Amino acid sequence: MEFEQQQQEQQEALLLQKVCALYNQISSLSSLKPCKNVDTLFTQLVLTCSQQPPAAPIGFDVASLSQPLQAMRAHLIQLCAKAEALLELHFSSLLASSFHHPISNLSIFPYYSNYLKLSLLEFDILRSHSRRLPNKVAFVGSGPLPLSSIVLASIHLKGTIFHNFDIDPTANTMASQLVCSDPDLSQRMIFHTKDVMEVTKGLKDYEVVFLAALVGLEEEEKGRVLKHLGKHMAAGSYLMLRSAHGARAFLYPVVDICTVEASGFEILSVFHPTDEVINSVVIARKKVVFDQSSVEDEDEDEEEEEKPGILVDTSSIVLAEKCSGFNGFTPIIEEQLS
Known about the structure:
Elements: H1 2-27, H2 36-50, H3 55-59, H4 67-98, H5 112-129, E1 136-140, H6 147-156, E2 161-166, H7 169-179, H8 185-188, E3 189-193, E4 208-211, H9 219-232, E5 238-243, H10 257-262, E6 265-273, E7 280-286, E8 332-336
Parallel strand pairs: 1-2, 1-4, 2-3, 4-5
Antiparallel strand pairs: 5-7, 6-7, 6-8
């Protein structure tokens, strides 16, 4: 047992050494726009954080890091977010300008296979809790290359209307250009240039809300978004969150489960992939009986009549199956909560 602990500590020390070295190189770059050097460094970072021996990324707790390392991690996540945004801008522009039908050529995006696997995972998790497919969903933080929405809409949720929210008008314009040539998706994908914190009554229309991992980089900001969703989403509707676990938390923010619950949601399950899929997936359900006083009232002056909650087929709600029940994935760590 002592030997195993020493081995894990050595793996974690080596992991930190590699991440810090890559951080020093990435933070010294003059630009994070896609190029050979930038792509190589971020590829190395992703591989370092996702392909360590199992004990290292799974047992690694970023909350235990020293204050300087915490500050480094926070800055690294910001750099990753900026690089990801620039990468999406580049490929969205490339797809729209180079192909008559961009949707048929999404595989040129270097991480497209990751989105295929992540979207399949999210769909399977959603179906394991409710066999009724949603008619209308929202994706918050869709960006200029809304791969998650496109994959879910074109492969898994073929009859669902997708409302995509992004605060950046340029991102929405570029995203619209990608789907406008597709006769199906152009009718089922709607783009809203709006801060989700300004959306109130409209949130009750969605049976499922997907929250992108990079919406709310800081814990307090993420908490405000969650409280807002908890206040305005329909009772019984589902919230799909993307988080990170272990060493992957150097790449993306970690969702605080306690904050989700305090915002008026019931955690249904948490999934931590151990393959090339980076994001953990959290599914939660808006409580049917919800004490509004437990959530900070962001807009006390606004009084709106409570609409009936989304009708949930409770007879079809089941606990998520074990990881072996999801096709196409290597084993994943799973936390089941009732």
